[in-house]
Amino acid sequence: MIIRPLSLGAATPVALRSIGEQCLSALPRQQLRSAQSTQRAFTTARVLRNALSKGPGQAQRLRTGYFLNNSFLPRTAIVSKARASTSTSFTASQPPIPARDAAAPVTETTPEVDLPHRRRQKARKDAQAASAEAGPEAAAEPVIPPDASSVLTTASSNLPINSFKRTLSTLLALTKPRLSFLIVLTTTSAYSIYPVPALLSPAITDTPSLSALTLLFLTFGTSLTCASANTLNMLYEPKWDAMMSRTKNRPLVRGLISPRGALLFAALSAAIGTGALYYGVNPTVASLAAFNIFLYAGVYTPLKRVSVINTWVGALVGGIPPLMGWAAAAGQTATGSGDWKELLLGYENMGGWLLAALLVAWQFPHFMALSWTIRHEYKNAGYKMLAWTNPARNGRVALRYSLVMLPLCIGLCAVGVTEWSFAVASTPVNLWMVREAYRFWKYEGLKGSARGLFWASVWHLPAVMVLAMVEKKGMWQRVWRAVGGAVEDDEWEEIEEDEIPGKTTVASV
Question: What pTM value is reported for the model?
Answer without folding.
Answer: 0.66
